[in-house]
Design goal:
Number of strands: 0
Shape: elongated
Largest sheet: none
Number of helices: 17
Distance between the termini: 70 Å
Helix content: 55-70%
Order of helices and strands: HHHHHHHHHHHHHHHHH
Structural class: mainly alpha
Length: 379
């Protein structure tokens, strides 16, 4: 006959074997710093804890586990009374709205100045305009939805990324004309800024890309605000991913639609080819790279921008190397590609493959709760 207290002895005990207590000890700094359980959930996911892992801690998902961790951390009565709103959405501010419009305005002024000027004045106007647009773009990227919230990156990473970006943008203006000149035995003269010159420049896609800074900022804001709202309403990591994926791809498609409209408008006004393939793939690549940087991912954008730029460099270097005695075979791949699809195939292929790789990477990383965790005071 069993003793009356036998059933009590077989009950599981929490005590020293409490798994949540051990987890709290490992992530105490995160739990003490958090202002909301959602911030803890995002931090746990960043450390590799998934809904399946949460089951080992006797919780159905990471969000439920984060709520217990948040409740276990001792807090003062003043902290409990203040109860801030979870994951506040950045406000629309006039400064970043105006700054996002500034590169396009200066780009339009530069295009008009190049068209209206003649002779030796035209290159000077083009150079001054390019410097002004570059400065305005850099300023716009420091404020608003496209700003990097993690501060100044490592010097080597920042310089490399900026160099690749400048090359890609410069190739969008001068690259097709340069490659065509290289393949036909040139170049014999420097670019004059005229679309019908010996080294023609592509003004329409360049102007459309500067004007696209504004829709890029708005799409980035829509993604950030929508993701934070869905994070508040989600009850699991898989639930959040399912809601965040259409939001990411929707913002991306919205930007491509806006850029297509700008290309059509600029091509019509300037009476130039819109260069849809080159400009759309480059615009997609730059937007995805910036979105990843904004959401704390630097390595993938740097690698893909560098790979795209290196491909364009090689496309011009191989035909030049093919002019050396016995090296004509080096130019064969580029000549075959250009003879089949035209000079536009080089930047379209380079930026398109890089943009596709970043899109797949963004589909995995920007749909995680940890990518949208707050990093500071809201704008």
């Amino acid at each position: 006959m069993s003793a009356p207290g036998a059933s009590v002895r077989t009950a599981p005990r929490r005590g020293a074997a409490d798994p949540v207590k051990a987890l709290l000890h490992r992530h105490r700094e995160l739990c003490e710093r958090a202002v909301d359980p959602l911030e803890i959930a995002a931090g746990l996911e960043a450390h590799g804890i998934t809904d399946r892992t949460a089951a080992r801690f006797r919780h159905r998902d990471v969000f439920s586990l984060a709520e217990e961790l948040y409740a276990r951390v001792p807090r003062s009565s003043g902290d409990a009374c203040s109860a801030p709103d979870p994951l506040p959405v950045p406000r629309i501010r006039a400064d970043w709205v105006l700054l996002s419009l500034l590169p396009g305005a200066l780009g339009a002024a530069t295009a008009a100045g190049v068209r209206l000027s003649h002779g030796q004045l035209r290159p000077l106007v083009a150079l001054a305009g390019l410097l002004a647009v570059a400065f305005a773009t850099r300023t716009a990227l420091r404020r608003g939805p496209l700003a990097d919230p993690t501060g100044t990156p490592a010097w080597r990473t920042a310089c490399g990324t900026r160099a690749w970006t400048l090359w890609l943008l410069g190739y969008a203006v001068f690259g097709d004309g340069l490659l065509d000149a290289v393949l036909t035995g040139g170049p014999d003269a420097l670019p004059t800024g005229a679309p019908d010159g010996p080294w023609p420049t592509a003004t329409a896609p360049a102007l459309a890309l500067t004007l696209a800074c504004a829709p890029a900022a708005w799409c980035a804001r829509l993604l950030s605000a929508g993701a934070r709202r869905r994070l508040v309403g989600s009850r699991g990591l898989e639930d959040f991913k399912a809601a965040a994926k259409p939001l990411l791809f929707g913002a991306f498609a919205l930007f491509l639609g806006a850029l297509t409209a700008l290309l059509l408008l600029c091509g019509t006004l300037l009476h130039e080819p819109a260069a849809y393939a080159q400009a759309l793939t480059l615009g997609a690549l730059l937007l995805l790279a910036r979105l990843l940087v904004v959401h704390h991912h630097r390595r993938a954008p740097a690698l893909t921008l560098g790979a795209a730029a290196a491909t364009e460099v090689a496309a011009n270097a191989l035909p030049l190397a093919g002019r050396l005695p016995g090296c004509a075979l080096l130019a064969t791949p580029v000549r075959t590609l250009v003879n089949t699809w035209g000079v536009a195939a080089v930047p379209a292929l380079a930026c398109g493959v890089a943009a596709l790789a970043l899109l797949l990477h963004a589909g995995r990383t920007l749909t995680q709760a940890s990518a949208h965790a707050p990093t500071g005071a809201p704008e």
